[in-house]
Design goal:
Elements (H helix, E strand, L loop, with lengths): L2 H7 L3 E7 L4 E7 L4 H12 L7 E7 L2 E4 L17 E7 L6 H4 L3 H16 L7 H16 L20 H6 L4 H12 L7 H12 L8 E5 L8 E5 L3 E6 L8 E4 L3 E7 L2 E6 L7 E4 L3 H21 L5 H164 L17 H62 L1
Parallel strand pairs: 1-5
Antiparallel strand pairs: 1-2, 3-4, 3-5, 6-7, 7-8, 8-9, 10-11, 11-12
């Protein structure tokens, strides 16, 4: 067969991109493949056996719909793109996750999808529950909490809480991390699959978990209700309340569901009960609701039947896998515990070794210090001996100085006594000088008075003599060349003698006064010189006494 013939027989293909919650895959599909062929290929690639929960979702004209398994892929109304994108998502939800999710991959895919729905606020969750769920998500991602490894800020790049919760409470990222870490530290020893299962067990109790909502109306004109389809049945909600249904139809109480164009009819099992009819905006919405109702009802009935051989095998394998994982986890826990104990023992030995090394180092340092201290003590002993000699020498010198100071003190005392004596003498001399000065001043005053009286008497005598001369000898004015030896002039000569005698006494008295004044001035000068000498000697003695005090 030629190469051209082989090329002609190769089937034509088209490319698809499969987007899971955490990965993307691309496949080449044959043109004739149905939706089930592509779905089975994806499940085989993922290693998924619990295929009944999942489907391939795509968006066309703004509406999310599911790929039909019994029709060709290219015959369905899918996006015209290359490659064609499909989202591999959970289409139906279990009633009890712990009992129905058997494979770890199934559990992991549900965990990722539910977590995304909570973060995207498609499922409402209280702030307290979101923190707890976030702690299980962190445990599943990072394993056991280790404060040495998981330092503050290690959750900075993880999206763990809905934006609504972050806006509701004015807390910093550090505060939220602290709250999550407080719960996270409590999950020590929980494996990844256990943490994810605990997450799902909490999430399955939320009111909006696993519910697909569609706007409906009880008549053809108004869309004033919401219809919700989940694993337990069909629920009717008011437009503003997705938590508490106004009316519910459990799958066990529904006899029939029919769909015709935009009308959907629910017939209860009780024939007497009222038939519920509602309208949707589009036929496609009605068909989608009908498709979800059939799928959820089939799973509901399947859970209440005896498990098929495949399910029994899967459950047995799941139990064996859980038992094996439990034993493996226990073994790992023991190994981890032994490793931690070994590490603690190693750390203790290292600490002890470090302590011993530190003690040895300290002992060596102490020995070196003791040797240095011994050398220093020897030096100090030598220095002390030299200091002792020096002190002895200083003591001898001090004794000599003391004796000298005693002699000096005796001299100082004697000099002080002499100085005091001289001071007393000077004081006495000064007193005498003051008294003598007063006495001389009084004498001088008396002499001055006597002198004034004598001069006054002399003046009066001269005046009187002149008066007498003028009266008795008027011719003497005409004849001044008289002879002093005449007898007529006896009286006149006698008066002249008396006058001369009086003049001589006055001169003598003045001379004596002048002589006594000069004597007084001489004595005063001598006393002043003596006082100066005494002051000089006293000052010199004071200086010697000060110097003697400083030397001592």
């Amino acid at each position: 067969m030629s190469i051209r013939g082989l090329k002609k027989k190769q089937p034509k293909t088209f490319k698809v991109r499969i987007i899971t919650v955490d990965a993307e895959m691309e496949f080449s599909c044959e043109m004739k493949w149905k939706g089930k062929d592509l779905f089975d290929l994806v499940c085989r690639a993922l290693g998924l056996r619990e295929t009944w929960f999942f489907g391939l979702q795509y968006t066309i004209k703004g509406m999310c719909t599911w790929l039909k398994m019994d029709k060709k892929v290219l015959d369905q109304e899918i996006p015209k793109e290359d490659p064609i994108s499909f989202h591999f998502l959970a289409k139906f939800y279990p009633e009890k996750v712990e009992e129905e999710l058997l494979q770890e991959i199934t559990q992991h895919l549900f965990f990722l999808q539910v977590k995304k729905q909570i973060l995207d606020e498609e499922i409402y969750c209280s702030p307290e529950a979101t923190v707890l769920l976030a702690s299980y998500a962190v445990q599943a991602k990072y394993g056991d909490y280790d404060p040495n490894f998981h330092e503050p800020g290690f959750l900075a790049h993880d999206e763990l809480l809905p934006k609504r919760v972050l806006r509701q409470y004015q807390l910093t990222a550090e505060m939220w991390e602290e709250k999550i870490t407080a719960w996270y530290a409590e999950h020590r020893g929980i494996a990844r699959d256990e943490a994810e299962m605990n997450y799902l067990k909490i999430a399955q109790d939320l009111e909006m978990y696993g519910v697909n909502y569609f706007p409906i109306a009880q008549n053809k004109n108004h869309t004033d209700l919401l219809l919700g389809v989940d694993a337990k049945g069909i629920h009717i909600y008011s437009i503003n309340n997705r938590f508490s249904p106004n009316k519910s139809f459990e799958w066990s109480s529904i006899r029939n569901i029919s769909c015709s164009e935009k009308e959907l009819t629910i017939k209860p099992l009780d024939k007497k009960a009222e038939v519920f009819k509602f309208f949707s905006s589009q036929l496609k919405v009605n068909k989608l609701i009908f498709q979800l109702c059939i799928g959820n009802h089939d799973l509901f009935m399947r859970r209440r039947k005896v498990d098929s051989i495949e399910i029994q095998q899967m459950k047995a394998q799941a139990r064996e896998e859980k038992a094996r994982k439990k034993m493996e986890n226990q073994r790992l826990a023991r190994e981890k515990q032994l490793r931690e104990e070994a590490e603690r023992a190693k750390e203790e030995l290292e600490r002890r070794l470090f302590q011993l090394e530190d003690e040895a180092r300290q002992a060596n340092e102490a020995l070196l210090r003791s040797q240095e201290a011994a050398e220093l003590l020897a030096e100090k002993a030598q220095i002390a001996e030299e200091e002792a000699k020096l002190l002895a020498q200083n003591a001898a010198e001090a004794e000599q100085e003391r004796q000298r100071l005693e002699i000096t003190a005796l001299k100082s005392k004697e000099e002080k006594r002499l100085m005091e004596q001289k001071m007393r003498e000077a004081e006495l001399i000064a007193v005498k000088l003051v008294k003598e000065s007063d006495r001389r001043a009084k004498e001088a005053e008396h002499l001055k008075q006597d002198l004034q009286e004598a001069r006054e008497a002399e003046r009066k005598a001269k005046q009187k003599l002149l008066d007498i001369t003028r009266l008795n000898y008027p011719h003497m004015a005409k004849y001044p060349q008289y002879s002093p030896g005449d007898s007529r002039d006896a009286t006149f000569d006698k008066g002249s003698i008396k006058l001369d005698l009086k003049d001589i006494d006055l001169k003598r008295l003045s001379f004596e006064i002048e002589r006594e004044r000069l004597d007084y001035l001489e004595k005063s000068r001598k006393f002043e010189d003596r006082l100066k000498e005494l002051k000089s000697e006293i000052h010199a003695l004071k200086l010697e006494e000060k110097q003697a005090g400083l030397c001592s």
